[in-house]
Each structure stands twice: as C-alpha cells, then as structure tokens.
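new request in #modeling-help
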Amino acid sequence: MERVNQSGVADETDVRPAWLSFEELFRAEHGRLLRALFLVTGSAQEAEDVMQEAFVRVWDRWDRVRTMNDPVGYLYRTAMNAFRSRYRRAARAAKRVFTPRTRTDEIAAVEDRDEAFRALRSLSPRQREALVLTEYVGYSSEEAGAVMNIRPATVRALAHQGRERLKGSTT
Amino acid sequence: MSDPRDLLEPVARRIEPSPNAFERLARRRARQHRSSRIGTAIVALLIGSAGLLGALRAFGHDHTSPAKGAVLDQRLSLWPDQWNLQRLQAFADEGQRTWMTYPAATARRFARTVLAWPSVTTDHVAAPGSGPVIVQLLSCPPDRCDRSLVITVTLARLTRADASGIWSVIRVGGTSLDLALSPGSNVVAGDDLRLRVGPRAAGRRVVAGWVASEQCTDDTGETVLQPAKGVASFNVAPKEARSISTQSTEGDSDSTTITCSTTITAGGGASQPPLARPARGYVYAYLSEPFTKHAGSELLGPVPRFIGPVRMIALTVVPVRFVPASQKSAVYPRGAFQSCPDVAGTHSLGPHARGGAVFTALRFTRAYLRGHEGVVAETQDPSVPQGAHWAITAKRGRWHLDGSDPARHDSLVRFGCGPAVANRSWAVRIDDGTKSASLDFTLYLVKRASGWKVWGSY
C-alpha cells in the first residue's frame, strides 16, 4: 500500500502497483473491498451493491483515475461516499415511513445471533468506517482520512472509540 | 477480544466474492449507460423543443435582452468534477449542500478544498444579470489581508440557469498568475501560451502545464518556470495517446463496450503522434508553498491533493479545447476570446473613432456591473454567444477609464481573431479601481452601421 507523506508525495521506498487496465484493478481489489464494505454496511447484499456502484464510477473515469497517485484510495473513497449517501437516504426514508423490519437475507439472520457481528453493528457508521479502514484494510490514519475526507486525528479518535466500544461489547 | 483485527477477520471471511463478479459489473455498467443514453435523448428532445420555442419567440419579438436560462457546456466545469454535476444538483434539490447554489459560498469552498487555504475572505463579487459571476478571494482573515494576493474565480450555472441551479468554477486567475484565455477557447497543439505574472510570483518557481482528456485520448504535460514579472510563456503540446476500438457481442446489447488500447509504451513519449482530433482539457499554472510539483491530471481531481502544510499561493486554470495544428487555419477564435466579430459590415476606423468607442465601452461596463441586461445586449456585438464570459470585475464607483487605442497592433487580438479583426477593432482599457494593475481589463469594440459594439474583453 502506498504511503503518502505530509507533502502529498508518495514515499519512494513504497512499491506502488501501476495499473494497466481497469480489469486488473478490479481483479486485485474487489475481494478486499467487498469484505471491507461487508464490515461497514453489515449486509452482504448492500456490500455487493455499493462495491459495484463504486467500481462503475471508477471505470467511467478510468482514464483519469489511472494516472492518479493512488487509484485504490480513490476507489475506497468512492465506495465510502456511496455507502454514506445510501445511509443518509435510508435514514431519511425511515423517518418518513415506518415499516416493520423483514429479513430476506439468510446470512443476516445468522449474523444477528453472532456476538462479534452484533458488536460491530453497535458502532456508528463513521466509527465502523474508521475501524475497518485502519484495522482491516490496513490504511494509516492519513490515508483513511483522505478516504473519509476528514483529518487524520479524527480518524484516530473514531477508531479509538470504535475499539473501546468493541472491547466493551465483547467482554 | 484484545485486537480488533482478530474480531474483524473472521466476520469479513464470511463473504466470498462471486466468481463472475467482473461480468456482473460489466452488465450493470452497460445497463446504466443505456439508461443514461435514454435520459440524454429525452433531455436533448426537451432542449430542442425549448430551442425551437426560443427561435420562434426571437423572430416574433424585439430581442434586445439576452435569453435568460442560457446554460453553458458542462464540460467547462473545473470544480466540481463535470461527471458529478447532476448528482450534486440532485443533492441541492433535496436540500443538501445548498451552499452550492450560492456563488460566493461555492468559491470559498473551492479555495478551502482545492487550494487548501485555511481562511478565506471574499473581497468582491461581480454578479451581473444571469450570466457567469466573478468572485475575488483573499487567503487571510479579514483584518489582516495581503491584497497583493487575490484569486479571481469565475463561476457559472451549468446544470440549470434558474436560482436553484448549482454553481461551478469555470475559470481561475488572479493578480499573481493569469492565463490569457477564456473558458472553452481554442488552443492549438504546439502553441505557446501567455502567462501574466504578478510581483508575488516573479522570480519564484511556478508549475505550468496542461491536461487533455476526451474519451480515450488523454495526455498531460508539466513544466517548471521561473518567470520574471510581466508576461511569461510555456509550450502546450498535447499528443494523441490512445486508439479506440469498439467491441460488441452478438445478441447481448449489454456487453457492447468501447475499448481504449494504449499504443504508446512507457518512455516512448517522443514517438507519440501529434493530436489528430480536437480534445477537451484544461491548462494551468500555480505557485505553491512550499514548492510542490504534482501530476496535472490530479490538480482538480476528486481526491484532495494537498495534504498537510502545502497550499496554493496562486493558481490559474482555464478549461480549453485543444485543436490539432493541422486545423490551425480554422482555429479562430482562440486565446483570450470566446468569439470573434464578423468583419463584414464593420467600418474602417478613422482618427475620430476614439470618442464613440470610449463612450460605448464605459456604458457597457456600467450596465454590466449593474446587471442591466438590456443595455448589455444592445451594446454587445451580435457575434457574442449567449452566456459569454466577460473579464469585467471592478469596484463600484471607483473604476475609471485608463486609456484607449486602435487594436491594430494588439497581439492578443491578432493572435485570437486574426489581423482582419485587429484592423477593425478599438481597445478601451478600464482601471478596475483597485490597487492591483492585473485586475484592470480591456474591452474590444468594432463599429457597425448601428453604432459601436463590444465584442470581447480581457
């Protein structure tokens, strides 16, 4: 993973893959992104949907994305933005219309009984994003900050809160 | 559970990517594109109908005022990204990010996001009528501003012309660096571009470059200058970078794709063929503190580029249309002008032309700054397109005439519209009323049977 220093220039010691085609990027990154989104969204269907939305956007702009310093960072940022947009839309819709929750996702039914999964769902979306990006994807707080469009210090704070809540829920 | 990674890993492993994930993605993309094409066709139909209605109205009535609702090409948008405009407009329609419907707020957000300015002060807003708006920004708290560092941001509504439309940045210039170009103007591949350099940028390392990008054609170039105060220049030479082929699978319209295959190998830049077809893009120059050199294609990209202490001291960016050198003969207008007047029907200029030209230029400026669209339409040349960008920004009550001359030897006019137009034009210089000489502007006029008409500005 490329490291970006304070002046926005990639460290020369890092080996950064030069993506030749969009398909190559997709093959290399879609598994990890799907799993990260699964952790963030808490739903297999939604994770797949958000992942596809993000990849379609990147594909449409591939000529520009390809030349960026960090196409993978851009991909994650697009995915997190898509997730947040959906989350906001869903929250608005929930305020307007209350409908009883119906489960069609069999995996989700099992997950709800799972302690670890329940603990993860107890975090706020921002805390989940910060925790997944730093702990699961392996981003530094600077890189996660660029993805989430917030300061590195805020990422650290959110991730810390997330860790604390997880610790509290699983002990 | 001590390490969150131990908790996340097993949960994440419960989901497995589908083996035909890429094919599903390709089908989804094709579906989206098809929906988008249908949407575009409907919009085109509506625009065509509106155009027909407009034409009928124009022929039936006196047309002394510019048509309200003229929307410029969305490809002029430097920020936000042109691909995001419709989505952001939808946000604004839903009551989110409503700052985008205010030009000064959009300009300030641009300064904070793209230029990484910690504090932004709006110095002056020129909002004449329904056309583009010019906002002057200072990077400072209001009580201690360095007024020699002004950035001028031109904004226009590119999605919708009414008050609910969001604003886009279509040009950036300023007192320290300014390109002699209008948004959307033609630039011949291989030409030198003029860069106006103010005292704050003189003698310092300035990065200048271009980005050409259209469908599968893209190329970027960047150079570092150390210009003296006055006018510097740099060469802009976008080249053909890719070839295009279309693939289609029988019986499945979803799988029709355009494939861009790279024809140039790494390090083979010298062998790239010259630009063969017009391409959209932008040209730019900037001065950052501390000095930082970045790839131009990311200059206004959606990912913030300036992390940490780097900020833009001066920036000029203009969206342009690159034209192959082989089409140079048909390239007017170019450079600083969006349009050139038709010299047929213009009068030759005698020694007594000055008074009429100056009077009309002052009347035009006053009307433009006050938003009197009727007078602006009456005094502008018929060649001026709707929604044209005018380089006019001035302090009310302080601006005044600086001088006037025949434009016969004006290099901007000769370059931008050719010698025939230069021989029939008069240049009137207006002092904008600020201490900065680089915000002064010049109006160009021709004389027709109906009187003096303003056809361009810089």
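bot summary: The radius of gyration of chain B is 24 Å.
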